[in-house]
Amino acid sequence: MIKISKIFSFGLTLLILFMSVFPKVFAVEEGNTTGLDMGTSLSPVKFIFDVNQGEIASGEMTIYNVTSIANYVYTYVSNFKSDGVSGIPVFIKEKMELNDSLKDWITFDKEKYLVENVVKNNTNATKIKFNISIPKNAEYGGHYAAIMVSINDPKKSLIPDTGNIAFAADPGCIILLNVKGKVSRDLILKGFLATDPFLKEKNDQWLFEWMPVEFTTQLENMGNSHTFPIGNIIVYQGDNEVQKLSFNKSESAILRESTRTYSTVMDNGFVFIEPTKDDKGSGVTDSNGNTQTKIGFNFDLMSKQFIGPFKAKLLLVYDDDGQKKSILAEKEFWILPWKLILFVIVLITGYIFVKRKLKSQD
Hints:
The chain is mainly beta and 362 residues long. It is 13% helix and 41% strand.
């Protein structure tokens, strides 16, 4: 291990010298910042309710108009399910039974709302209030819907036979509602992988040339309600803890009877791989959808470079109707700049060969 570290340090010095001689090969691009499109904003973006059958729950959203003119806005609601990968809502077009359709339990205090635009010293915030009337025979477990806000009247904008579909530019909030009763949450670990964060396909691998390393965790919820797995991924080298990463820091939910994939990325060291960006500051991808990369340096972390074998330990907990359950897993991998090591070996071999050749000619 010590020999490898010495070879790495020597090779890293050569690499830096090489880059100073040929700067165009490893040119560091600076991203340009671009302004955000300003329009209507809504808060909060998520409501969580835990209710009984027959109850009425209430909520309130705040909407801000940061355009230059006042406008009327309308609300509409769509049931949704998980996409089964990242948790992105997929709106349900089919009509659902009343005891299972959260969309049909929601009513608003107005049909439309006049939203004044933000002016100096006055946000002109508009409140949108809603009630959720849970049927007495509501199905136990998780129910999911999104409240959308639009400048278009949804009654006039509906496509026949498709129900309320979210308009692309409409802001909204999601509602995660659990009806108490016969509720179960049962998470199964489908995979704990070490993956390349810049590749579209998340295949498990054991060897990485540079940081960062991404941990892809695949979980399936076999229960009938949503849950929020939290915990840590702790990375060890030997018996030494080198990093402690928060898992699901945003506390995103896994919906009922669905799967979700979580991504957790290790912190960088001195030398690392970063995305290549275009003139607008956006990441550049190839024809396969993979992010193009380049070598980056953080000179504040010159003494912190990851190399060698590592082990990552996954430690998760989640709530199953008041009972705490846990999930444990391990993953071993290597970080080894093999191209650099090969370059150093070739360089040293060439030096020895040339030296012996010259000596034989004396």
